[in-house]
Each structure stands twice: as C-alpha cells, then as structure tokens.
Description:
Strand content: under 5%
Number of strands: 0
Shape: elongated
Mean pLDDT: 85
Low-confidence stretches: none
Radius of gyration: 15 Å
Largest sheet: none
Number of domains: 1
Order of helices and strands: HHHH
Helix content: over 70%
Amino acid sequence: MLSLLQQPHEVDSLLADIIGLNALLLSHKEHASFLQIFYQVCKAIPSSLFYEEYWQEELLMALRSMTDIAYKHEMAEQRRTIEKLS
C-alpha cells in the first residue's frame, strides 16, 4: 500500500505485482468487482497520506478507467454466454 501512496501512477504494474497470476484466473465480472472495491478503498484514503495530494485523484481516475474497461469486458463476456445459449 505504501508503494501506491508513493507511486500512484504505477497502479497497473503495482496491482500486477500484488495479485499477479491470480488476476488471470478471475472472470471479467470478478475482475471488475475487485477493481470497484479497490477503487472504494483508495477513495477512502485521506489525500494527505499521498506524497502529493493531487495524486489521489490521478489514482482514482486510473482506477475508474481500468474499471470501465473491465466492465466492458464483463458485458462482452455476458453477451457471448447468451449467444451460446441461443
């Protein structure tokens, strides 16, 4: 977590280091849910704990972007599942 406070612009690689291969095993729905929870946790951190206070907003923007992408993948996965059942 300290790395995140000091290097929020590296959130993608930090998450890869933290959850690593486990992330590859998640469904798109689980991945989107994880990112949403992680976003809420980061949002609750006081901005004064970041090396630069504006870094929190940059981190949150990056996480929103990652969550949006994960959600789009989740929706595509659901459409494919529905199409297979039809």
